[in-house]
Design brief:
The protein is an alpha+beta fold. It has 10 helices and 5 strands, in the order ααααααααβαββαββ. A hairpin with a 5-residue loop joins strand 4 and strand 5. The longest helix is centred in the middle third of the chain and has 89 residues. The chain is elongated and about 130 Å long.
């Protein structure tokens, strides 16, 4: 976004410079064709044309300078109609920026000076009549350009609003679908798993009560049933809400509690994040730590959050058993992580490290998700 703004500002400056060069070249060439042109005339023309370069910052000052210097040139040199070009441009630009009344007044001042140079009233009318029409066109086209720019801005704003509305509708539909899936899972699986776990528990209890040895398969069923219930509850919680239930620091503490050697490092100036970005950071760290716990073996894991001026870098490295010559196939976790990062306009790199272990590196713009 910042790069786009710089490019736009540069384009505007180049356009302003091109306007000054073109107008200045035309009026100076026209003046050079007149043998009576003096150094003062050239100076007035240069001042009148060069002032146009600053019309965006001080349009009224530019209009006044162009009008006064243009009128002085007309009164001194008695040129043709092309000598009015710089004043004509200043009038048009001032009108385009919303100063049509002052632009019309400046046109009247210049036309009055131009008419004075005529020896007779008839010649004054003939000289200024056509030129007056051009100045009227300058005011009108400037106003039309301003209205057109306002229309384009309004259209762009409506398009952004429509896009935001579509995103909100998509998020709402996604939330409704998650709730539907959660209900389906709850209705279809929770009851059956609960019965399996309960029956296994009763069988274990009765065997122990009778003093019999509990079959290992029965104990395995009981343990698997409990684990399945815990996993299902966690899955249902994720489906019911996508909001994080903690912070990356809390995730690292939980990982340590399970025996994973994990550490967290935060660099840069930490700041509040938009909700979608905060969710993404939490899920990326959560998924990375989960993968390290499952696949890295007895490894050390380092989580790093680096806050930059415009972006946030999340890096999770482990020194586990991943082999660069045999990269793992991305599962649902890494695929979902990539989808999150891409949706926020970021980049993601995952894979084995050259020195061994696995790395996850995500770069996210800090303004990601503000419009959601």
């Amino acid at each position: 976004m910042s790069g786009h703004s710089v490019d736009s500002a540069t384009s505007r400056r180049l356009a302003d410079l091109a306007l000054v060069v073109v107008v200045g070249a035309l009026v100076v060439v026209a003046a050079a064709l007149d043998a009576d042109t003096t150094a003062l005339d050239y100076a007035l023309l240069v001042v009148s044309s060069a002032a146009l370069a600053f019309y965006r910052a001080v349009p009224l000052v530019v209009l006044a300078v162009a009008t006064v210097s243009g009128a002085a040139y007309v009164l001194h040199a008695h040129p043709g109609s092309l000598g009015a070009l710089s004043v004509f441009a200043a009038v048009h630009l001032a009108s385009q920026l919303g100063h049509r009344g002052r632009a019309a007044a400046a046109s009247g001042v210049f036309l009055g000076a131009y008419a004075i140079t005529a020896p007779t009233v008839q010649e004054a009318v003939e000289k200024t009549g056509l030129l007056a029409g051009w100045f009227v066109c300058a005011v009108v086209t400037g106003l039309a350009g301003r209205n057109w720019q306002a229309y384009l801005r309004q259209t762009e704003q409506r398009a952004l609003e429509a896009e935001r509305t579509r995103e909100e509708a998509a998020l709402r539909r996604a939330g409704e679908e998650r709730l539907r899936i959660a209900r389906e899972l709850h209705d279809s699986l929770t009851h059956s798993i609960s019965i399996v776990k309960l029956q296994a528990g009763v069988a274990v209890h009765l065997a122990r009560k009778r003093g019999e040895e509990v079959p290992p398969a029965l104990l395995a069923i009981q343990e698997a049933g409990g684990e399945a219930m815990r996993e299902l509850r966690a899955t249902l919680e994720v489906l019911r809400t996508d909001e994080p239930t903690g912070t990356p620091a809390l995730l690292v503490e939980r990982a340590r509690a399970t025996g994973l050697a994990a550490e967290l490092r935060v660099t840069g100036e930490e700041c509040a994040l938009p909700a979608p970005l905060d969710r993404a950071v939490y899920r990326i760290v959560q998924e990375s730590l989960t993968n390290a716990a499952r696949h890295a073996g007895p490894a050390k894991v380092r989580v790093e959050l680096a806050y930059g001026k415009d972006d946030l870098t999340i890096r999770v490295d482990d020194d586990g058993a991943a082999d660069p010559d045999r990269p793992p196939q991305p599962g649902h976790g890494l695929t979902g992580m990539r989808e999150r990062v891409t949706a926020l306009g970021g980049t993601l790199h995952t894979g084995p490290r050259a020195e061994g272990g696995f790395t996850v590196r995500a770069e996210l713009p800090l303004r990601a998700g503000e419009a959601v």
